[in-house]
Each structure stands twice: as C-alpha cells, then as structure tokens.
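Hi Q.,

Before the meeting this afternoon, I wanted you to have the zinc ion prediction in hand. No need to reply - just skim if you have a minute. The sequence and ligand are here:
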Amino acid sequence: MPTAEQRTDGLERPAVSGGRATMRGHVLVRPGHIELRELPLPRAGADGVVIRVRAALTCGTDVKTFVRGHPIFPTPTLFGHEFAGDVVEVGPQVRGIREGEAVMAAPTAPCGTCYYCTREQENLCAQVTEEFVVGAFAEYVRLPAPVVRTNLFRKPAALPYVEAALLEPLACVLHGLSHVRLRPDDTVVLVGAGPIALLHLLVLRTRGIGRVVVVARTPGRAVQARALGAEVVPTAVAAAREPILALTEGRGADLVIECTGEPTVWEAAPGLARRGGQVELFGGCPVGTGVRFDTARLHYDQVAITSPFHFTPRDVRAAYDLLASGTFGGEVLVSDVLPLERLEEALARHRSGQGAKYAILPTAA
Ligand SMILES: [Zn+2]
Ligand SMILES: [Zn+2]
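Predicted structure with the ligand bound:
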C-alpha cells in the first residue's frame, strides 16, 4: 500500500494494480469509430479516487455520442458514464472511503456554492457539464473531488454491480418526477419504450401508480414494457391520440412523459394529456431544434409542460436509497453482459432496440 507522501506525487508513483502503468480502455476517436487502446492508468491525485470498473452500462447518451457526436463530449474522448466498481486508490485528502470498498457513483457533481447551487438548482451548475466523468468503458476510471465529496456511495454487498450502475439514469428519472404531481389513481402515459421509459415504469410501480400506458413503436420493446406491467399502445406517437382517449373515457392522460428526445414527439405529447394534465418532456433533443405547441392546450386546457434536465444531489441520494432497498428490480433492464472488447456490439444492440441496456464488464471478478 503506498504511503500518503507517495500518493501526492501522482504520476511517478508505482501503478496501483500489479505494477501496471497502463490499462485497456475505449476511445471514441470520432463519431462512429471507437478503438480499444492501452491507456495510462488514471491516478487519484491529492483529492480523487480511482475505481476498478466492475460494470458499465450503455446509455442512450452513449449511443447518440457514438453515432453523431455530443456537444458535452468532443472527440477524441473516453466514454461510458454509468458504472460501479471497487476503490483501488484514494487520494490523501479524501476522507470516509477506503481502498477495496465496492462503490457506485454519479458521473457529475455540482460546486455547491454558485448562484444555482444556492437555489437548489444544482443540475444547472456549470461544473456539472464541465467536469463530467467519462471513461467507464475502461478497466479503471478516476472520480474527481466533487464527485467523491457529493455523489459517491458504498455499494451494499447484496446489490449487483450491474444494478448499482443504474444510479445515474435513475437519478435523472427521479429528478424529472420531482417536477410533477402524482396520484395513485393517475393514468400515466410513457411515450417511447426504451430503457428510460422502462426505468420510469419501474419507478412508477414503487409509487403505487396502478395504470401506466406505454406508446411503443418498436415491437421488441413493447414486449418488455408489457412484461413489466404496462398496457401498450403499439403505434407511433402521431397515431396514439385516439387510443389514449379511448383508454381514458375521452379525457387523455393525467401525466404524459416523453422518453425519446425527438422534437416531433415533444410536439405530439401535449395532445395525449387531459385538460389540467401534465407533460414531462424528459428526453433532450439536439441543440437548435424547435417545436410548436397549440397555445389553447397550454392556456385554455391548462396543460402544464415541464422539461427537467439532469439531477441534483438529492435525486442521487434518492436513487441510491431506492437501489439499496433491494426491492427495485432494476437488473431486468440489463439485457446482456459483455466483455470490454464487445462494446461496439453492445452499442449496436442498444441502438437497434433489441433489449434495453447492456452491461460491459471491463475486469473479471
Ligand atoms: Zn446515462
Ligand atoms: Zn454550482
């Protein structure tokens, strides 16, 4: 075990794992092109933590970044941001976490002191997008001080690594739901049946929402939504209004949650809500795109629209509590488990709508 003095000189200290100075990790060289490379082993530095990645999940954001690039992740870049693993190195200034502990973390954390942070809008803190942990599709990843301080948790022994890696998307879902009112007798419509819609479905189940209807145009995903207890309207959103009205005595849904990030779906979503209903536009669309809404729906029909982004530390804590409860059942969203070499296949399968999310296990147990 290195001494604290040795840790502070960072780069010159012997490698953390079996004398190795490098690790295998995926680099997104440019959109559409990833390479598995030997990379320098990340170092904790004074105030960070390095973890050995035991599970990293594919996410719609990874797929978007791989296919078309992403403004927050300019290429070339490491990628992968949903993960759980074991602590292998702890900076000397870090308190409360030790080498060898199994952990789960969100990939961002706010500064805690800016205008937004002091108004409980930490999701809008500039640090959230400036210091985003990417690189979970690798053997090791470094967590910077803000993440270590705010959004790093010990993983309960009974919680599988692949389920613990849901911490970040689950925090996003809980953040979104914190912006709407829910009653057990509500009819909630989820537009889309990808992993984010299915994650909403699991959360709505924990809130006692009896009736969830999923609008799914991909047959494979419709099967999974139905297996998780939803009614399914197997159509594109443009044709969903009549079936939704038929299911709700002509009213429309109490809450519509858009889970696709497509402007055409954003535009159609208010048409599925009842008078006085709510619409949560969850999926981020490409920057610069625009939408049109009928003003009468927003004003005379009093349909409330919200579009919450990212999460706050309270959402991460709530996501942790839900996963740690042991009853959430998030593992059903992990359709297959693949080694690091097969990341491209995992992204392709995620994108095609076969199954939901895929787990990459970069290091063997
Ligand atoms: Zn994600
Ligand atoms: Zn801040």
